[in-house]
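Anyone? Bumping this.
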Amino acid sequence: MKPPPFDYHAPRSLGEALDALAEAGEHGKVLAGGQSLIPMLNMRLAAPAHLVDINRLSELATLDVGPDGVRVGALARHAQVERSERVAAVQPLLREALRLVAHPVIRNRGTVVGSLAHADPAAELPAVLALLGGSVRLARPGVTRDVPAADFFVGPLESAVESGELAVSAFFPALLPRSGTAFREVARRHGDYALAGIAALVRLDDDLRITSATVACVSVGPVPVVVDVTAACGHRPPATADWASAAWAVQDRVDPETDIHATADYRRHLTGVLAEQALRDAAREATGA
Amino acid sequence: MSTKLFGEPVQRREDPRLLTGQGRYVDDLGAGALEVAFVRSPHAHARIRDIDVSDALDVEGLVAIYTWEDLPTLLAQPLPLLIPHPALTHGRTAYPLARDVVRHVGEPVVMVVARDRYLAEDVCALIQVDYELLKPVVGVEEAAQSAQLVHEDVPDNVGAHLIQEVPSADGLDARELIETAPHTLTFRLDIERSASMPLEGRGVYARWDADDRSLRVYSSTQTSTSVRMAIAAKLGLPLPKVEVIAPDVGGGFGVKIVHPWPEEVLVPWAAMLLGHEVKWTEDRREHFVSSAHERAQVQFVRVGFDDDGRVLGLDVNILHDHGAYTPYGIIVPIITSTQLLGPYKIGAYRVEFSSIYTNTVQVTPYRGAGRPQGVFCMERTMDHIAEYLGADRTAVREINFIQPDEFPYDQGLIFQDGRPLIYDSGDYPESLRLLKELIGWDGFPALKAQAAAEGRRIGLGIGCYVEGTGVGPYEGGHVQITSDGRVHVSTGLTSQGQGHETVFAQIAAAELGVPMERVSVVTGDTRRFGYAVGTFASRAAVMSGNAIALACRKVREKALRIAAEALEADPRDLEIIDGEVRVVGSPGASIPLATVAVLSNPLRYAFDSETARATQFAGASSFDRPPVEAGEEPGLEGRDYYSPIRSTFASGMHAAIVETDSLTAEIRILRYAVVHDCGNLINPMIVEGQIHGGVAQGVGGALYERMVYDDHGQLLNASFMDFLMPYATEIPSIETAHLETPSPLNPLGIKGAGEAGVIPGSAVIASAIEDAEGIRIDKMPISPSELFDLRRAATG
Amino acid sequence: MHEITLTVNGMIRQVEVPGRRLLSDCLRHDLGLTGTHVGCEHGVCGCCTVLLDGEPVRSCLTFAVTVDGHDITTVEGLAARDGTMSPVQRAFGECHGLQCGFCTPGFLCTVTALLRENPAPTEQEVLEGISGNLCRCTGYQNIIKSVHRAAEIMAEERRADADSEQPGEEIV
């Protein structure tokens, strides 16, 4: 299990990186944390002719935290984001989700933006971005565009990043007042990809009634499945909200597949169970917020 | 003996090197060696039409490409069938490189030698093999009914078929007794495949000395002596010209007892041919598809019993999936069918198995080696009887137990060593008492009710087993005390982490009365000890431990004889303490073992003042006798062998409390308790470690690990991402208690401990889940998804 | 080929590697530091874990060329210069936290970093800390014990250091 040969590029600036990627076009691949890419290379499931290593671009190892949200640079490692108190204060869901991403040693190396670009529907971070309505900033020489989460995840392991483009950062909106989030998942082993998982966001009005309730589902579709369950919950205080209906509504919207670890039916069932639990947790957070 | 060593938790002497990165595993050796990779079959069943290497020839760093056609006559034959058996009427083994037909994904087809492994893999990727696809045979029941054959000349895919019958005391057979029994139950049980999966894969590194025409091979094996014989035979070399060494080995658990693996003969062959060191290090993906798996069986059970749950007759029919080849014979189903009876005396027993070919990786022993399946069968049977009668599960077991005064107890079967299955000793009622106390069996109903009141589901399970350990035919030990007072111990079997260097040093130090620091131990190196069988079947401590003890006793006797002469004392008045031979009761009269060693070897040439004492003008010797007397040998050394009349039988009982999530169907083990009896303990710390590791593999096999093949014979989870070996987060804390019922069969009174922990895993967890859920659990492993399905089926 | 410079266990090492050379292979086969083991080459088993600028990472999921100029600590570099084993190494020995020893270097590196960051971890923190390392021999129980014991040894040593520094401060 050794990677196939490739031309290695080690740009020293973002400009150099974008030039290298543009030149490589469809034969190029970005190496950031490498925690998903290198296993694929070692198994020879991927064989890019050019690898553009962005690990020297410290200008991308950034975390910009503002009142509106968190902008995570392409070289910010999972662990860096997970440990940041400022990030946790602005958007606590990030830390909660990151703690479920693989294992601590993998998180030391893996990057948040890399996870998004990898677009694995079984991964936690795409669901977080989708739930929060964040976006990913893509760049090629002279052109930058922001792609909203809803358009970013195209299919399993397929994102809106085009060949020659680099995902330079991702933006996760802040948690608003009277809002709460939660992440729940069931994995076979601690740290494995989830059999099913739910990221939930609940907002309350000044009377502490639910004004919006949304979930993003993991591992039950080609991309993170976002479901608005506000209507199902009812415009009520969390204590009397119809969480069971909300869970049913989520279950109805997902289309999981059977694989060697779980049947589609079980995943659908889990999605319902976890949706209810995550929504209740998020509502509790919102009530306290 | 100065300090008590036998039975003490002595710290391991292996550890300092392993903790500092100074261990030497196969891939750590041979820095300049050429490296090997294989083109392996991507198909489960296919005929090779053509192999085209032309695209690969340009890769810089390529050294050689070999296919079956390149192999010399001896190597071009199928690999040995290691353990023939009369019931194995259609044993088949693979060629080192596939000849015309490949029979499982992963079978080696082309061998590539290159400057390094990266380049070798580049070459493999460019070799085109043209296959004609044949219909694969997957699944043991499908194979048993299929018209499609794995081997054209093996009808019905049946490699072996064996029936063993043990009639009751009054001569009735099991089927008759079941017919007339007050109660009968019939059910089916399933166990899926898992694998040994040591963290170090296999590996072979060979050096050919062209001047000396000798070969040295390092292999990550559980038997270096037998690998050596196989290599000598397959390469046509004189045995003394071949040395095989098992260096540090990163776990075995059974898979590395198989030999010679194709790579173990191909790599040395290439080294000879190329006149260059050659190495192959198996990668993880290769290990999944080209080593070995175990466990898969389907069992059909019929049992007859009385109102108290006493088993009157038991009839078991087993379909055993042995994969594409049978290099290790039918040891696994033999063990299943003979160890199935566990600690129980059964009225009459009939067991029949068919060992079936499928287009999957071959099946050879994995820790437990057929016992987990047998115990699963017996213990599920006990639970089903208890459920049927509304009796306590331990009460049903107890009434069937062999009693302490009934040993030796003859089960009437022929065991895996070809010898009668006679239990030597044990105390099953006491084990059960200890276990019930440890887990709180009697208080559990209250705990369960309390949990239920909180909306939680918990269940308690139990599993009992008896394990034949220390199978023959023999092991040997060699002990030499040199003139510096050091003690050099060697034995032929190999080590894979069991701490043999430590326990064998404990035994030798205790036997000889020397400080442990003076003892060094070498295992698995044919340069030091050429006769051995190997490390499997929980046999190393029993076999080599006793052999070393016997060799030490020989040396001790000789030392006392020589010292007696020097001290002008009666050998019976001597003792050895701290490496000194002393006259009991007269502290001044003593002689160090180092000096005894000098005196034991009459010399012409001295190399220091100490050895000068043994030269021919040093005086003292009698002119009437030769310097080395008839029947004596120079040197203070001894060699002895331990060859038991039959196996010794360890036993144990496990209990577990599990919680099943009523919503998510997740299964969590809350407590896991073990009572274990392996006779006298040499090093309780090491035995405990063996049990922990075994239990973890048992938990893996019960809840996480399985090999998932699709209908095309593709292994769908050939990676650590999808083959779910437990991490620390999945393994419960393990509570243990020991019972020590010495074995009367060997001088040290010990029994094997290596496999024990894994054996009842699936039985215990199934029992506990069943208790929590009130749903029959007859198929293991079980995942949350499967439990969810069972719940739905139960509620309709 | 790329000429790279690594500081490995405090020594500056220069080596020429192809872009695809995994750090694990570079350490083992180019630099002869075979204490770092390779168990899966897809990042799951943790045997190959080394410290990159003090942080544990998978050397099988890192290209050597990527870490040009960085600091690497392998199992060979955990002991003191005089060869005294580190508290973590000693604790694993004391508690029988290893059997075949193949996964051990990965655990040692992981735990060394864990205890540096969190000198007195709870049971849950220990579990989380070692949750990415597979061991097929020990059943983990004694590994967990070893981590707690290592924390204890380190605390004892810190106390001893503090005690021995006390009189020194008085003199100053």
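Late reply, but here is one note on the structure posted above: The mean pLDDT of chain A is 96.
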